[in-house]
Amino acid sequence: MEREVDVVVVGGGPVGENAADRARAAGLEVVLVEQELVGGECSYWACVPSKTLLRSAAALRAAQRVDGAKQAVTGSLDVAAVLARRDYWVSDWNDQGGADWLDSVGIGLERGHGRLDGERRVVVERPDGSRLTLIARHAVAVATGSDPVVPRIAGLAEARPWTSRDATSVKHPPARLAIIGGGVVAVEMATAFAGFGTEVTVLARSGLLGGMEPFAGEAVAAGLRGLGASMHLGAQPAKVERNDADEVVITLDDGRVITADEVLVATGRRPRTGTLGLETVGLEPGDWIDVDDTMLARGANGNADAPWLYAVGDVNHRALLTHQGKYQARATGDLIAARALGRPVDTAPWGTHVATADHSAVPQVVFAEPECVSVGLTAAGAEREGRTVRVVDVPMQSASGAGILADGYEGAARLVVDLERGTVIGATFVGQDVAELLQSATIAIVGEVPIARLWHAVPAFPTMSEVWLRLLEALGRPADASADARASESRESADDAESAA
Fold first, then answer.
1. What are the Pyridine nucleotide-disulphide oxidoreductase dimerisation domain coordinates in residue numbering (predicted)?
2. Distance between CA atoms of 45 and 42, rounded to whole angstroms?
3. 181 and 227 share one domain
4. Lowest-pLDDT choice from 301-315, 384-398, 445-459
C-alpha cells in the first residue's frame, strides 16, 4: 500500500507533535508515525514522571524548612500516594488523549515502526504485520529521540540493570539502589529515591553535573549526603553481578564492594537511528543526524536540489532537552510549510526558521536537592571561546525573598558577563526553588540586554528575584551609561563625517 501526503513526521513525542502541528496549522496534510505511545519519552518515562516523583518530597522538605509549618508536619512521605500521582500524570501509560488531540487538529496517525526507504519515502511496519509506504510531497521530519546507553562493564548487562524508564515507572521502590553516573538523570533519581527512604549509593567517575558550574555539582553532592545518600565520586565500577540472593554486587576499580537490590545506569544516551533506514538516503545507521540551523539533515540524498529531510530533538544531538527540541520543531514545522507554500523563508540568525538559541542560550533545570539551573556559557566555557569576561558570584540568601522562603536558606548565583559586549552570556542559580529565576536569565541572554539597561529592571521586594540586584551591585554600575552612549554616538557621527569627506 502507498499513500502520498505533504509531510511525514517519524516520532510522536512532544518534538514530533510540535513539528507536525506547525506544518498542519499552515494547511499541509501531515501524517505522524509512532511505534509506542503518542507523547513519547517525555510524557511517559522521562520529564513528566520524574518531576512528579520528585515533587512530593521536595514539598515536604520545603515545609520542614519554615518554622510554624514544620510543626504541622507530623507524618512521613506517603510513597504509595506519590506513585499514584505519577500514574495519574502519565495517564496510566495510555495515550488515547494524545491520539485524540492529533485527530482534533487534523494530523493523521500511523501506529508502527517507521523507516526511511529512499528520498521522501517512509515505510511503516504496522503492529498487524502489514506495511504502508508514505510518500512525502514536501518533507520528512525525523524526531525519534534517544535511548540510554549501558556501558561496557563486565557483567553489567547480565545483571539486569535499570535504565531511566525502569526508575520512573517503578511500582515498588527498592530498599537499596546503586546509581552509575553523575548527570541529570542520576542526580534527579538519586534525589527522588532518597526521598522515598531508599538507601541510595551514587557512583560517579567524573563527579556530578559536569556540564554546569562546579559549585552546582558540589551543592548537589552535599544535598544528597544530607538526604542520606552515599557518594563515591571518582569511582569506576570494574565488575557487576547479580548473586543467588538476587542482589546486585558492584566491585569498584579500587576493590571496594557495593551491594544493592537494583542498579540504575545513567551514563548517557544514543540516537534511535539504528533501524531508521538512514543508509537508504546516504547517512550512517546508528549515528546522530548532523543538521544545520534549520534542522536540515546534512548529506542526505537530494538536499542540494530540494531540501526534504529534517531531524529535530535528541536525534540531532544539539541539545538533549524536550523544551529545546520543541523549539527546534516549531521553527522546522514553520519552515517546511513556508517552503511548501512558497512563502518567505527567514534563516538569518535569530530568524523565524532557525534554532539560533541552541548555540548560546540553552536553559536547563536540574530538579535535585538543591535545584540547579543554568543558561548560556559557564565561566570555563567562555574562557574556551576566548571571551573577555567577568564572573560575578553572590549567595542566593542575599536576596531578601530567600530567607523568607526558607529558614537557613543556602544557595549560590553566578553571572558570566562579556565585557566587550556589555551583556550577560551565562547564568547559574543553585538553591531551593530557583527554577523560576531561569527565564529572566534566558531573556537577558537571548535579548542581549545591556548591563546598563538591566539596572532598570527592578526586582520586586521581597522576592528571590532580588538576587539580580545583588549580582549587578557586585558587578558594579557603569559610571554614566548615558554619557557613554552619547560618546559612542559622537564617535559614530565623526566616523560618518570622515567617510563622507
1. 362-468
2. 6
3. yes
4. 301-315
Instruction: Report the alpha-carbon distance of residue 442 to residue 65 in Å, rounded.
Output: 29
Task: State the pLDDT at residue 184.
Answer: 98
Is 488 within a domain? no
pLDDT tens for 33-87 read 999 999 999 999 999 999 999 999 999 999 999 999 999 999 999 999 999 999 9
> How many whole angstroms separate alpha carbon 48 and alpha carbon 367?
12
Q: Mind listing the pLDDT tens digit for each residue in 276-322?
A: 999 999 999 999 999 999 999 999 876 556 899 999 999 999 999 99
Please report the pLDDT score of residue 3 as a whole number. 97
Question: Would you call 95 helix, strand, or coil by DSSP?
Answer: coil
3-state secondary structure 114-161: EEECCCCEEEEECCCCCEEEEEEEEEEEECCCEEECCCCCECCHHHCC
Residues 120 and 168 in one domain: no
Instruction: Specify whether 123 is located in the same domain as 209.
Output: no
Helix (H, G, I), strand (E, B) or coil at 109: strand
- Cell numbers 537557613 correspond to what residue? 408
Side-by-side strand order, sheet with 372-376: 364-366, 372-376, 423-430, 412-418, 389-395
Segments forming the whole domain that contains residue 467: 370-482
Q: Which of 306, 327, 357 is the last residue of a domain?
A: 357
Tell whether the model's pLDDT for residue 495 goes beyond 60: no
Q: Which residues pair with 424 in a beta bridge?
A: 417
Contacts of 243 (CB under 8 A, 6+ apart): 249
pLDDT at residue 132 tops 60: yes
In-domain check, residue 55 = no
Can you tell me the distance from the alpha carbon of 309 to that of 244, in angstroms, rounded to the nearest whole number? 51
Count of helix runs (H) and strand runs (E) in the chain: 16, 21
Cβ-count burial of 118 within 10 angstroms (0-12 exposed, 13-18 middle, 19+ buried)? middle
- For β-strands 423-430 and 364-366, DSSP reports them as unpaired
Domain membership of residue 53 (yes or no) is: no
Residue 297 domain-assigned (yes or no) = yes
The amino acid that residue 211 corresponds to is G
What cell was used for 99? 491520539
Query: How many domains are there within the chain?
Result: 3
* Burial class of 151 by CB neighbour count within 10 A (0 to 12, 13 to 18, 19+): middle
Which percentage of the chain shows pLDDT scores above 90? 93
Whether the predicted pLDDT of 438 surpasses 50: yes
Same domain? For 207 and 251 the reply is yes
With cell 567562555, the residue in question is: 382
Position 457, amino acid: A
